[in-house]
Write a structure and sequence with these properties.
Elements (H helix, E strand, L loop, with lengths): L7 H26 L4 H11 L5 E3 H7 L4 H13 L3 E5 L7 E5 L1 H21 L6 H18 L15
Antiparallel strand pairs: 1-3, 2-3
Length: about 160
């Protein structure tokens, strides 16, 4: 059994977790100001950046930190708040889409300037441009390996209709 607690693989995972936790803690107060949870903001962002401002519920689960049942609960709550709505999928009766509403787009527009300011201050602005590009490339490589569903339904993967 390897008991090397100085193993750089442990350091790599620990640093990623610590950076993510610290960044999310910096963003949390701003989400609260706008009466959103971090996951609700993530849902609005994913929908707002998707073709037609909508994603299949299963694709939304793949792109977020939520399970399929977790997405259902969050979308139910956001639908009651008027931020999203559901649409039936015309090609598959078992599927439905989550669609950002006008109210959801307005809320996202209210949150985004402050969010981008915090992201600049506590994330992307801390690195020179060349190191940021390397980081983004590295994160995409890792994401694509460990979460291949993360781009499901996005403009990168949607075939023209």
């Amino acid at each position: 059994m390897n008991t090397d607690l100085d193993d750089p693989r442990l350091t790599a995972v620990g640093l990623l977790a610590e950076a993510y936790t610290g960044l999310m803690n910096r963003l949390a107060a701003q989400f609260e100001q706008h009466r959103l949870s971090a996951v609700e903001f993530e849902v609005l962002m994913r929908l707002g950046r998707s073709p037609g401002n909508r994603l299949r519920m299963t694709d939304l689960a793949g792109q977020t930190t939520l399970s399929t049942s977790g997405v259902t609960r969050v979308v139910d709550r956001m639908e009651r708040g008027g931020l999203v709505r559901r649409e039936a999928c015309s090609s598959d009766r078992r599927s439905s889409y989550a669609v950002i509403t006008e109210a959801g787009q307005e809320r996202l527009a209210q949150v985004l300037p402050g969010h981008l300011e915090l992201v600049q201050r506590w994330y992307v602005g801390l690195l020179p441009e060349d190191r940021l590009e390397e980081l983004l490339d590295s994160l995409r490589t890792i994401r694509d390996a460990v979460n291949p569903c993360a781009t499901a339904g996005s403009a990168e993967t949607v075939a023209p209709v």
